[in-house]
Design goal:
Layout (H helix, E strand, L loop, with lengths): L9 E12 L2 E12 L3 E5 L6 H9 L4 E10 L2 E2 L5 H6 L2 E4 L6 E5 H8 L6 H7 L9 E2 L5 H15 L3 E5 L7 H14 L11 E5 L13 E6 L2 E6 L1 H18 L3
Parallel strand pairs: 3-10, 3-11, 6-9, 9-10
Antiparallel strand pairs: 1-2, 1-4, 4-5, 7-8, 11-12
The structure holds adenosine-5'-triphosphate and magnesium ion (MG).
The site of magnesium ion has 4 residues, from α1.
Length: 250
């Protein structure tokens, strides 16, 4: 772990997680543990099951758990619906969130809000003030959608932060805003009392320039084939590709 002061308690645990989508097995026995204060990243080729993993942690019924389960602070939450998991402090930023007509971004952020978050101020920090009155994600560009997702997540202020490719499609200037927002979400500038933990999917690893991660996992064909130092993993993937990475026995 990078931060000695971070907590040590197990917060999120996936035990032998098998998940099926439309009758097809996508996750084939994933074990993964995230402790209080830790940030983990998840790498893997397109179609390897990364989004499926986050959707299953969030509990969307389409992602059917056929074996194993999801545990939050030791409690089996596999049978809980998504809104219950959100109430218990799990929050997710989607890779491809839906457009919600008839609900403005400001209303949605207020609905998501667990504490007294100043939505207007957070929107300002994310360069989204002009978007508050618009329907959620309606006509937003790719990068604007990412920031809109972050705004809703910051309003929710979850304890377990799941991010599906937060930096993809975001330009260099906005990348800084996104990085800063994720640092706030994960309490990265709080050293002693940091509790929040995160699991971040990334292809590029750009986010590692803003948010240091404690562990990385490489997912291939629905199974974790490597757990280790995320920067070393990224270097390995860049040099040798995922196929070679999966063969590595280091
Ligand atoms: N509704 C569905 N019906 C059939 N197959 C599905 C469905 N949803 C997901 N899949 C399949 O599950 C596999 C894993 O998809 P997933 O979205 O989890 O991949 P990913 O690792 O997030 O990929 P990417 O890097 O492209 O985002 C893919 O082959 C996908 O086509
Ligand atoms: Mg995905």
């Amino acid at each position: 772990m990078n931060d000695m002061a971070a907590g040590n308690d197990l917060v999120l645990e996936l035990r032998d997680l098998h998940v099926e989508v439309e009758g097809r097995e996508i996750l084939r026995g994933v074990n993964l543990s995230v402790r209080s204060g830790e940030t983990h990243v998840l790498f893997g080729p397109n179609g390897s099951g990364k989004t499926t993993l986050l959707m299953a942690i969030m509990g969307f019924p389409r992602y059917r758990v056929t074996r194993g389960g999801v545990f939050l602070e030791g409690e089996d939450i596999t049978a809980l619906p998504p809104h219950e998991r959100a109430r218990r402090g799990i929050g997710m930023m989607f890779q491809r969130p839906p457009t919600v007509r008839g609900v403005s971004l400001e209303q949605m952020a207020s609905i998501c809000s667990r504490d007294d978050v100043d939505v207007g101020a957070v929107a300002g920090e994310l360069n989204l003030t002009d978007f508050l009155a618009r329907d959620v994600n309606h006509g937003f560009s790719g990068g604007e959608i990412k920031r809109s997702e972050l705004l809703q997540l910051m309003a929710q202020n979850p304890d377990v932060v799941l991010l599906d490719e937060p930096e993809s499609g975001v330009d260099m200037e906005n990348l800084q805003l996104v990085g800063k927002a994720i640092r706030i979400l994960l309490q990265k500038d709080l050293r002693r009392r940091r509790r929040k933990c995160g699991l971040i999917i990334t292809h590029t690893g750009y986010i590692l320039d803003y948010v240091e991660a404690d562990q990385g996992h490489v997912l291939c064909e629905g199974a974790v084939v490597c757990t280790g130092n995320p920067r070393e993993q990224l270097e390995g993937i860049r040099k040798y590709g995922f196929e070679e990475c999966a063969k590595c026995t280091r």
